Structures are given as C-alpha cells and as structure tokens.
Amino acid sequence: FGLLGYDPGFLNTASCKSSITFIDGDRGILRYRGYPIEQLAEHSTFLETAYLLIKGELPDQERLAQWTYNIRHHTMTHSNLVKFMDGFRYDAHPMGILVGTVGALSTFYPDAKDIGNVDSRKLQIRRLIGKIPTLAAMSFRHSMGFPYVQPDNDLSFSGNFLSMMFRMTELRYTPNPVLERALDVLFILHADHEQNCSTNAVRAVGSSGVDPYTAVAAGCAALYGPKHGGANEAVIRMLMEIGSVDRVPEFIKSVKAGSGRLMGFGHRVYKNYDPRAKIIKKIAFEVFEETGRSPLLDIALELEKIALEDDYFISRKLYPNVDFYSGLIYQAMGFPMDMFPVLFAIGRIPGWLSQWSEHVRDTDQKIARPRQIYLGEGERDWVAVDSRP
Ligand code: CMC
C-alpha cells in the first residue's frame, strides 16, 4: 500500500491548521481564540462570542452594536421557505427539517456561490447566524402543529429564540432572565470544538467550493447522528431507566459488567473533567432554582459521585462530558428531546462558519479526498448472466 497511512476516524490525522479553538484534553482546557471558555461563559454573550470566533478578536462597543444589528437584520425568512417548511410531514423530526431548510437556503441566495468574494462571505455568515434560530423554532412549531412566531428583534439572540419557541398568545413574550442567560451560556459552550464530526463535515463539503448553506447543512446532517448530537437525549433516557437514586449503585455495577456505557461520561479528547461540564453543572442548579428541581437531577448527581470514586472510571479517565447535564437543563426549560440536536446546531453555527471561512482562505487546502486500503477482488472477467454460478 505504499506510503498510505491507515487512520480510521482520523484519530491521528490533522486535516487542517487552525487558529480558532485550542483543546488540551489531558488538562481539561478549552479556549476560543485564546480566551478560556470559563471567562467567556461568565462574561460574554453568544453573539459576542460568535464575533470572536469568526473575526478573531473581541469587538469594541461600536463593532458589537453593529454586529448585533446586522444579525437581527437577517432573522426573517422568505415566505417561500415557510411554504417549504409546511411541506414536511406533520410529525417530522425537527432536526430533519433543519437539515433540509438550511440546505434550501442556498437556493434563496444564489449570490452565496461566490465564495471567493469576501463581502459575500461576510453577508452569508450574518444571514446564517440570523436565520438559524428562526428555522430551528419553526421546525419545532411545525412538528407540534403550532403557528409560527415572527422574530422579536427587541429581544436578545436567546430571548428572541425562546419567544419564537414558546410564545402562545398575541401578547409579547418576556423571557425569564435566568433561563435566557442560561441558554445563551449553553450556546457559548457549544460554539466550537475544533475538528469534531460536524465541523469536519462542513470543512470537507466546503472544500468542494460549495456555498456555505450547503456546507452547513452537511454539519447539521452530521449532528443528526446519535453519536454526535444525540448523547444528551441518551443521558435523559438512561436517568429515566434508572428511575431512582437507590438504583444507581446497581446500574453502575451493570455498566462495569459490560451492559452498556454510562452516557454523558468519557470523551475522545478530554481525559480529564470536560471544562464545559463544570460550567453546565452550575447552570443546572440556577435553572432548577427557577423551574423546580427535576428528580432526574438527583439521580445524575448520585451517578457522578459514585463514578468519580470508582476505579473502573478513574483508571479509564472517564469524567462527565458536556452532555451529562445539558439535556436536563433543556428539559427543564421546556424543550422536547428531539430539539436537543437542534439546540446544539444553533450553538455550533459560529464555529462551523468560522472554520468554513478559515478553510476557504487557507491556500494550503485542497478538496478533501482521502485514500483507502483496497481489500476487494483482483482483476476478473465479466461473465454472462446465464453462465454465473
Ligand atoms: N461508560 C463506561 N465505559 C466507558 C465509557 C462510558 N461512558 N466510555 C468509555 N468507556 C470505556 C470503554 O468501554 C473502554 O474500556 P476498555 O478499555 O475496558 O475496553 C475504555 O473506556 C475506552 O473507551 P473508548 O471507546 O476507546 O474511548 P473513546 O475515547 O473512543 O470514546 C466516547 C469516547 C465519548 C465515544 C465514549 O466515552 C462514550 O461512548 N461515552 C458515552 C457517550 C457520550 O457521552 N457521548 C458524548 C461525548 S461528548 C460530545 C461532544 O463533545 O460533542
């Protein structure tokens, strides 16, 4: 096979050079453009973090105001896109709707094909960040049979999303400030994570020179898979299956015996506490203070406590990851489980776009085209159908 390297899942292959996100999995460090995730979660907003990821620096006040205005300017959708949305089956999965409608945006904005034009790239980035919460909320309301809610651009990014999700009357929706901030921080925590499956999909598809809507639809498609966007739902299902705190030791024992995995534990890169999980755990308590405590939280706390003291988990460096508490928070906020990957996609959009933009500008890059190790038949002759064994 000559000099071909064999690396399934690209565990040991760097597909790009990047200046966006730094992860040190052994020390539990995550930084966007050099800024520790803990500081961004405490002080920043999602839109400011999106600016940082895409442009490389934090904005001053004037730039932030202009950026916020620009994103708000793009929250509406074309009325034909609403018709397209209406065409999905009544019980369509919101993530399936998102994959389709984000891809469809490329047909509404043919100017996006001009990826060599820096002004066009900037415009498509603003459009996508502005529109994704609208499409996400519409996908939920379609799947519930509720009428769509127009964006309320006087609200914050996350407040407007909550309004488009949950507004039920003509009266203006006022988001609970604790839940609004918690959601904004959750979006910050999901905003980028270097070359994860969906980002790799965006880069690989984008390397063909396709427009960013189509490349981002590929990212959404990757996130639809249960191994990527579905882990927090799996955590909720696991906690429901355990059912009560006193059954936790028995469940841990069965995991150690090989019955299955402790969902929300372990990570390909983090061999230490996932820094996002620490922040999310704190948010969970703040949110439950407002919404009332879910009995599943007590099961999760007990699971974490026992697992962190158990040799099986210690020796394999298995710690809670970002998904361990995030589903519990989303559930407390009123999101159904099939919206969890959609929420992930809203958070990840600035990461996908900054990575796409970096990829397009990288003169080292080529169309993604890995090789393979062929294990099939050697050459053989075609045989007529009536002579085949
Ligand atoms: N529960 C029990 N045992 C586990 C777990 C777990 N959650 N994760 C790994 N192990 C064991 C595994 O059985 C193996 O044991 P042994 O050496 O005896 O065979 C050892 O730990 C190493 O496992 P691995 O599969 O080689 O580890 P990996 O780095 O390839 O897997 C993972 C990472 C996230 C796929 C895995 O930890 C897992 O399946 N976790 C549960 C699912 C989950 O929470 N996924 C969300 C990940 S974070 C999402 C994100 O950042 O976007």
UniProtKB/TrEMBL annotation:
The active site is at 267, 323. It catalyses: oxaloacetate + acetyl-CoA + H2O = citrate + CoA + H(+). It comes from the Bacteria. GO terms for cellular component: cytoplasm. One of its GO terms (molecular function) is citrate synthase activity. InterPro entries: Citrate_synth-like_lrg_a-sub, Citrate_synth-like_sm_a-sub, Citrate_synthase, Citrate_synthase_AS, Citrate_synthase_bac-typ, Citrate_synthase_sf, Citrate_synthase_typ-I. Keywords: Acyltransferase, Transferase, Tricarboxylic acid cycle. Pfam families: Citrate_synt (PF00285). Pathway: Carbohydrate metabolism; tricarboxylic acid cycle; isocitrate from oxaloacetate: step 1/2. GO terms for biological process: monocarboxylic acid metabolic process; tricarboxylic acid cycle. NCBIfam families: cit_synth_I, PRK05614.1. Belongs to the citrate synthase family. This is Citrate synthase. It comes from Chlorobium phaeovibrioides.
